Amino acid sequence: MLLETIARARAEREQSLLQRRCRVALTPCAPHQTFAAANPVDPPRDLLSFCSNDYLGLAAHPAVAEAMAEGARLWGAGSGSSHLVGGHGLAHARLEERLAQWLAPHIPEARALFFGTGYMANLAVLATLGTADATVLCEKLNHASLIDGARLSRARLRVFPHLGYDRLETLLSGCDTPLKLIVTDSVFSMDGDLADLPRLLDLAERHDAWIVVDDAHGFGVLGAAGRGALAHFGLRSRRLIYMGTLGKAAGVAGAFVCAHADIVDHLVNAARTYIYTTAAPPAVAHALQASLDLIEGAEGDARRARLRALAAQVQTEVGAIAASAGWELPLRDSVIQPLIVGDNGAALALAAALEVEGLRVPAIRPPTVPEGTARLRISLSAAHTTHDVDRLVAALARAAAAERAS
């Protein structure tokens, strides 16, 4: 019965053009990568990719790679146990101390807690703090990990529309639970727009609520020295519970939660995704120190400036093509540029046309995005060049011309 059910589900996905398959990368993360062909009999292909979250181009940076190797020489390949049993090493402790110092200007009495993944961090925060006497107020376009964390909690769940802060205020006004948690992405991963964190903090203060901010796509990119969305907006409050991802702009792996020390201590003692799992390899924490050095230094500033220039180029040049082709490129000053095509088949066809020309920009389809908004998510990296974007623009122009001619 199980296999028959799975077969039916697969057939339905195939019918709706929603079946997905992994592509195997044969070279390190970089804009120019070699991938195994989708058909095993075909040779590998060298592709120019616009699909990575390696926003600062640090994933294969020599200093970060060397720090990872040094960490393995110092601390071995694995941690050996969970944090509380014996796997919490000096490398983990030093990383947490540094991250807390980074966020201290924005969160009073800050303490940081390192997790193996951002998914685990978000589940920890929401499933632990979302008690039976709490209400979780969740942004409609939040990442799946926030949604799953809210569902796993014992709290009441209320969803407000994307950037729908008037509706959120109405929900807060009618909320009678002792604890209220406003939950939002800072940069929305499929749309590239920013939450209005100052307004959310104002609402939290007026309604005695707390804010959980997932800064997965802001950490390293936004704010002075790349310190994220809180720095970008100049916020400071003990009501802020912050999650930053370390496998995107930071180029390595893992994530962290930073909040008032009492909240973090509670997570250490009650968060199941922290307690009941082996700690991440200490070499990862060691490598992240090198990544943070780059992010906050002159090289990080230069890379963020390059990202802004590339985003402006995409907005100007791809935007003109989109208007002529009936696509939509929303106005975004962001590393994430969503080229909305609409139909699943049309998005897949556009992605396939680009791959024929040697570019990898996968189609994003439901349920990741709403029905009728399938898109190419153009992700920029500081490792891209203006020539790389020129190639993307030229390929999109040819695809648009072919579509108009058909």
CATH superfamily placement of the largest domain = Type I PLP-dependent aspartate aminotransferase-like (Major domain)
* Beta fraction: 15-25%
| Straight-line N-to-C gap | 45 Å
CATH topology of the largest domain: Aspartate Aminotransferase, domain 2
**Regions with little confidence, pLDDT below 50 for 5+ residues:** none
In sequence order, what are the helices and strands, one letter per element?
A: HEEHHHEHEHEHEHEHEEHHHHEHEEEH
Q: How helix-rich are the residues, as a percent range?
A: 40-55%
Shape: globular
Structure in words:
The chain is α/β, with parallel strands linked by helices and 406 residues long. It folds into two domains: 26-55 and 298-405, Aspartate Aminotransferase, domain 1, CATH 3.90.1150.10; 62-296, 3-Layer(aba) Sandwich (Aspartate Aminotransferase, domain 2). Helices cover 45% and strands 17% of the residues. The chain has 15 helices and 13 strands. Strands 3-9-8-7-6-4-5 form a seven-stranded mixed sheet, with helices on both faces. Helix 13 (298-325) packs parallel to helix 15 (386-405). The model has no long low-confidence stretch (mean pLDDT 96).
Which descriptors would you attach to this protein?
406 residues, globular, seven-stranded mixed β-sheet, 2 domains, alpha/beta, three-stranded mixed β-sheet, Aspartate Aminotransferase, domain 1, 15 helices, Aspartate Aminotransferase, domain 2
